[in-house]
Amino acid sequence: MATVRIPTPLRKYTEGKEEVDIAGANVGQLLDNLDAKHGGIGERIRDPKGAVRRFVNIFVGDEDIRFLDGLETPVKDGDEVSIIPAIAGGL
Amino acid sequence: MTCFVVIGAGGLGCPALMGLQAGGARRVLIVDDDAVDLSNLQRQVLYSVAELGASKAQCAAWTLASRDREVEARTLARRLDPDSPTLLAELLDAAPTDASEELVVLECSDNPRLKFAVHDACVAASVPVVVGGVVGWRGQAMAVDPRRPELPCYRCLFEEPPPRELAPACAAVGVIGAAAGVVGQWMATLALSVASSLPGSPPDKVNTASGGGFDHKLTSEQPSLSAESTSGRESSRAGAGMLIHFDLLNTRIQRLEPTPRKGCRHHGELC
Ligand SMILES: [Zn+2]
């Protein structure tokens, strides 16, 4: 199981939880399983073709998956996966 | 002398302006069309109860001037339109005119589309820009220096603004005032750092009165910026090209430091 850190705008899909434990051998599977457990969150992160949306970055530990193997990036037990959208508030 | 253009004088803009002033900025342009509101005062620290209803830009300029007689603070009380093709020209018109002037823009508004539009206009005109955002306990800040195309821009990281439902306004989800303070001050240090690397700002003179390109009055009690910017300036990014993501509730700080992205509208041809 990896720990997925959920950004504020998506916590309505995780009953307000900031972290959820999800299984998956790589980031793509992990996102599939995340969506299976928390219906609707998947389409916020990926577009209909399955690509990570253009205002989102995903990290495994401290590494941006774009500089690893993208959605194929392997995930180990205990890894921390962060979903980082562009933060655009400033009020 | 560098002119710092601060777009939005709210939760990010107020601490950014204080940080700029503390760091020796002498010329600023404050852009905001809003009025001081009681509900903002806890984090919009340049304003007081006595100023309720008055122009934020004007009050911010007064506060800066009341703390430092040498600061020249101009104001532009206008709501910028992200779709305007003359976005940057409008700012240039309002900025103090000086042929030798270098601009550094700080995007502190709460409008995602405006953030991207200001960034794009700055990159197109080769003007350094610092983009920041805050929501809840989280915040981000990134300095983009288009004079250094080998460094990534904001669009290299985030291709487009998040849609409305994914970019909740602070008004809707709230913001921790101190988080806005951290991000705003961080934006100011990034802007000062980028300004100290501008042509005509020899870093070895940055800590002498009026020696820097923006009349950078660092005193001996404030040596860190000059020490940092002096060492290895050639290879240093001067704070540009990396995005810092703060999660202050969990004290997590992540640094996104990519190479320019293929397909970025500003970097596509270079990759
Ligand atoms: Zn780019």
Automatic annotation (TrEMBL), chain A:
Pfam families (alphabetical): ThiS
InterPro entries: Beta-grasp_dom_sf, Mopterin_synth/thiamin_S_b, Sulfur_Carrier/Prot_Modifier, ThiS/MoaD-like
Domain of life: Bacteria
Protein name as it appears in the record: ThiS family protein
TrEMBL record, chain B:
Keywords: Nucleotidyltransferase, Transferase
GO cellular component entries: cytosol
Family annotation (InterPro entries): ThiF/MoeB/HesA (IPR045886), ThiF_NAD_FAD-bd (IPR000594), Ubiquitin-activating_enz (IPR035985)
Record region (Disordered): 197-236
Keyword hit for Lipoprotein: no
Segments of skewed composition (Polar residues): 220-233
Protein name: Putative adenylyltransferase thiamine biosynthesis protein
Native organism: Plesiocystis pacifica SIR-1
